[in-house]
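Hi team,

Below is the intake form for NADH-quinone oxidoreductase subunit J from Mycobacterium xenopi 4042. Please confirm the fields before the structure is written into the shared record.

FORM ID: S-0412
PROTEIN: NADH-quinone oxidoreductase subunit J
ORGANISM: Mycobacterium xenopi 4042
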Amino acid sequence: MVMAANAVYSAMFLAMTMIILAVFYLTQDAPFLGVVQIVVYTGAVLMLFLFVLMLIGVDTAESLKETLRGQRIAAVVAGVGFGSALIAGIGSVTTTGFAGLTQANAGGNVEGLATLIFSRYLWAFELTSALLITAAVGAMVLAQRQRLEQRKTQRELAIERFRPGGHPTPQPNPASTPTTTPSTYWPCCLTAPTPRNPSQGACGHVASCHADATVLRTCHPHGHI
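The structure came back. Fields below:
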């Protein structure tokens, strides 16, 4: 999960890790935690992460430059220390057995879990909630972009638009001002202009042209060749 270069792959590996953790809860006679782990974390929170990643896109060519000196070494040391503590904790639990599990689940797993959370571990539960709220607020503050200059009002935008003159209104459409691009010229014959009548072209030249391409010319607006 950590070594994956793509963030989407890392999120999928995290989903597999959460499912394995739910299996551990189920094997330790904690069905409520196992179901919550799958439904809430894997099915809701992680899917929200994937939705955001697929929506905004992920740049795989991320910079490898360290923003803090020695952060890679510190991360490796912290990872090794956490792994050692985790292995030692799991080893002590597996050798000594589960103490008080039967007594805690005497009235049911959900009731026993609620009793422990809101009595013995109440302060830890409240501090964890405050920590999560602080992390959410910090993420919003870091993601917010600070505007370096004051936002212009509608009056200021209108003054900037009309003060120079020129074309404050939209440009005329091609129906009132014919375009002069080469792709839209009218082909006319190399003949002198004649009075306009229904049998003549748009530029005042004779509408019938020779098939030979060498005698065709491009018709400009206002009847000029």
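SUMMARY LINE: Strands lie at 186-189, 216-219.

Thanks, M.
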